[in-house]
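Suppose you are handed a protein chain with no further information: no name, no annotation, nothing but its sequence. What can you learn? This example shows the usual starting point.
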Amino acid sequence: MKPNPRDARLEYFAERSLEDQRLLPDRGPILVAVSGGPDSVALLHFLASRQARAGRPSALVAAHVNHRLRGAESDGDAAFVRDLAAAWGLAHVAADVGPLRSSSEEAARLARYEALRELARGAGADRVATAHTADDQAETVLLRLLRGAGLRGLGGMPPRGRVRGIRVVRPLLEVTRDQVIEYLGRFKLPHRVDSSNESRAPARNYLRLEVLPRIRERMNPSAREAILRAASAIREAEEYLAAESRRILPALLQREEEGKISLDAALLLAYPKPLRTYLFRDAVQELNGDVRDLAATHLDALLSLLTTPSRRSADLPGGIRARRDGGRVLLELRFPEPAARKAPSNAREPRRPCR
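A reasonable first move is to predict its three-dimensional structure. Written in structure tokens, the prediction is:
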């Protein structure tokens, strides 16, 4: 059911997300990632107001990560966030991760989350709140579609999840950019403007500034809402497959020895391909504890082992080797050789896989 137009504001959707998804902890501080831009300033103000009403103003920590990608402008952002936190009586922490070896969006994102993880640890916070909006969600889903993502990627960003080892919550995922601007104007909140957002060079900016406006103009004025509905349906399917995989895996999996597990190939083949993919992903998680670098190509290689009777093998991230052995698919960790058996120092070191 749609809210009454007078209620269709940032507060309505953010509060609904916080309550429905239980995004905030019952105790302890909350780290809020604040760039100084409109979205993060609105989020910080909303949470600060909410915590003040609840009598817990000290539970918020404003965190800023300076990538030093825009020189004096980046330093200005850092100073702005520091002064804003002080003016609102909030704790403040900051990290400097620049200059980065790569100026790509992905490199900056990974560096930012790694810095936020350390800041959260120092502040005693078990999660970080970020200001991703409904517009960010639509852009993310479309970008992932164009890059060939699977169900997990096409479901978009979840309201709560893990990134680079930290718990991340996103209270504004149902809030539009227009609602953020309305909120800032209503409370007369200052904010910074990132000049790099006007560049068409980054893929996300090109999508936001060129592609989506044309889609709305020529094809569907409600393109954002259509993308978000599709992502929601995909996310529900993904959650079902993930739950089924967790339920089924124990019946298929057999522990061989330390660092080695196997799966019954015939039983796996009895399930549809999408579910087999999830079962393999969960098996790798069971063995290695990490599927972050497991790509579609790796999963395709695992699926091919089910229909190949020969003793083919496939190398996976995390030092895992998979191979077909009779009626089972074996997954084993290839442990490094003991130090005493390492090659002499003048020998050429073998090339290591990229992480």
